[in-house]
Amino acid sequence: MKLLKIVPEKTAIRFIAKRNMAFVLSGLLMILSVILFFSQGLNFGIDFRGGTLIEIGTPQTADIGLIRSTVGRLGLGDVKIQEFGSPTDVLIFVEAQFSGDENAEQAQQNVARVVKDALDLALGEGISYRRIEVVGPKVSGELVQQGILAIVMAVILMLIYIWFRFEWQFSLGAVVALVHDVTLTVGIFALTQLEFNLSIIAALLTIVGYSMNDTVVVYDRVRENLRKYKKMELGELLDLSINQTLSRTTMTSLSTLLALFSLYFFGGEVIRGFTFAMIWGVFVGTYSSIFVAAPLLLLTDVKREWSGLGVKTAKSRT
After folding, report:
1. Domain 2-44+140-313 has CATH 1.20.1640.10
2. pTM for this structure?
3. What is the pLDDT of residue 311?
4. How far is the C-alpha of 286 from the C-alpha of 252, rounded, in Å?
C-alpha cells in the first residue's frame, strides 16, 4: 500500500508562499489564451460552422491526395480531408453552402450526393459510406449560442452554490478558479487548432464540475480548520488545509488521468478531442484548486468567528 501512495499523508509544503508566482503565471496564461482566441480563433467543427461531414472507408490505404483533388475540383468551397483512425478511414468536411438560406439543409444534402458520385467515379467500387452528417448554418449558429450559455450558466450556478454553502469569499475564489480553467482550456484549443465541437462543450462542463469538486474538498477542510485552530494565522492555516487534502486530490487526479489516457490512445478518433480536453482540464483544475482558489482567500480577507469575541479578521503573515 505504501508504494501506491504517490504523495505522503503528511506533507508541509508552503503553497501560500508561492501564491504570487502562481498568480502571475495564471494571469499570463489567461491573457495569452484570450489573445490566441481573438487572433487565431477556434477551429470550429461542423457542429458550429455548418456543412457536410462524410466518413468513408476504402478497401486499401486511402489515397488522400486523390480524394482531396477529386473533391476540390467540385467547387464546393472550403474542403478538409483527413485520415480518421486507420489508414483506410477518411473524413471529408465541406463548408456550408448557403448561409442563412431556408434551403441550406437541402443544399448540403445535394453536396453529399455530388461528393459521393465524384468519389465513386474516381476511386471505383469498394468504398463504404459510413456516416453522412448535415448541419445547416442556422442550426450551427444556435448551437454556438447555446454552448456559451451552458458554460456561463454552469459558472453562475456554481457561484450561487458556493455562496450558500460557504461565504462570499469562498464563492469568489471558486468562480475565479473556474473561469481560469475554462479560459486556459479554450486557449489550448486556439493554440493547437484541434477541432472544437459539441463534445468539447461537454468536456468544458465536465471540467467545471471536476474543478469545483476539488475546490470544495479544500474549502471544506479550510472551514473545519478555521473552527479548530482559532488563533492560527490564515496563511498558515491555508497551507495546513491544502497539505491535509493533497494526497486525496492527487490520487483522485491520477486515477482519473489513467482512464482518460487509455481513452485518448485507444478510444478512437471520435472521442480524442473530448479526452484531450478532459486531460488538460484535470491538470489545470487540480492546479487551480491548490494555487488559485485557496490563496484567493487571503486576498478576500476571509473572516471567522472567535469564541466569545465576535468576528475578527485573520491576518496572514507578510
Report:
1. yes
2. 0.76
3. 37
4. 10
Task: Name the residue among 182, 186, 242 with its Cα closest to residue 214.
Answer: 242
Give the residue extent of every domain in the chain.
Answer: 2-44+140-313, 51-135
Degrees, nearest 5: CA angle 284-22-148 = 40
Q: In this model, does residue 304 exceed pLDDT 70?
A: no
Fold: same for 2-44+140-313 and 51-135: no
Residue type, 220: D
Residue type at 283 in one-letter notation:
F
The CATH-assigned architecture of domain 51-135 is: 2-Layer Sandwich (3.30)
- Quote the cell numbers at residue 293: 482558489
Grid cell locating 160:
450561487
CA distance 34 to 190: 9
**Residue 243 CA to its chain's centroid (Å):** 26
Beta-carbon contacts of 235 under 8 Å, excluding residues fewer than 6 positions away, are 16, 298, 316, 317
Burial class (CB in 10 A: 0-12, 13-18, 19+), 52: buried
The listed range with the strongest mean pLDDT (165-169, 227-231, 251-255) is 251-255
